[in-house]
């Protein structure tokens, strides 16, 4: 059963504890609100201001699990706080671990400060949870996929277009890397895991995946230097730095170019044109 008073108080306290700079928003010279405004939180949570405001006023419908997960991310809640939010709303909290989509506040705070840099947060099976605008400009919006196609590895073997933005000489290595990585996660998470379901799907849908899977390769790690092919600016050589959240098995990937290099100049151009085609 929903605890409306407890839910309202908890939401209000978390909103008031957040500052604009915590979520990548400008403070502005005339701000008098203690913490964030309701409309700011509603935008962060991808819901209407009216819907969010009613919850803080102990009104409105019982939030769905999807709405609660969105609020947990928008309010930068820890895992314990997320679980508390779900229980206040009369819902069972989602499972923790590698299959979870909840991003830790620490990773979110870092990502919020990287708007001018290609960066993304991904799950252990390659599902993109968040991207900076520059990451969208570099690789496209990879948060838009649904179902198994959310996984970059699944798309690699089932959608030829998934390989378009990667240098052809990298394709064979990336094929082995995706298979090796998925095999390790299946072993770690077990036969009932989402990783195992993904492997079963690929075994039925991709002859290439079946062939490489049968090699039983383990330990093929991503390379630090990535070679992209962008449809507008061409070839880019970028270094990828990875920060891992051990609780949720999420990775924050940040892509940079050597200052003064041709790729650095192309990244600067990409920051100007964004996702728009050159005229």
From TrEMBL:
<dbReference type="InterPro" id="IPR010982">
    <property type="entry name" value="Lambda_DNA-bd_dom_sf"/>
</dbReference>
<dbReference type="Pfam" id="PF13560">
    <property type="entry name" value="HTH_31"/>
</dbReference>
<protein>
    <submittedName>
        <fullName>Helix-turn-helix protein</fullName>
    </submittedName>
</protein>
<feature type="domain" description="HTH cro/C1-type">
    <location>
        <begin position="34"/>
        <end position="82"/>
    </location>
</feature>
<dbReference type="Pfam" id="PF17765">
    <property type="entry name" value="MLTR_LBD"/>
</dbReference>
<dbReference type="GO" id="GO:0003677">
    <property type="term" value="F:DNA binding"/>
</dbReference>
<dbReference type="InterPro" id="IPR001387">
    <property type="entry name" value="Cro/C1-type_HTH"/>
</dbReference>
<dbReference type="InterPro" id="IPR041413">
    <property type="entry name" value="MLTR_LBD"/>
</dbReference>
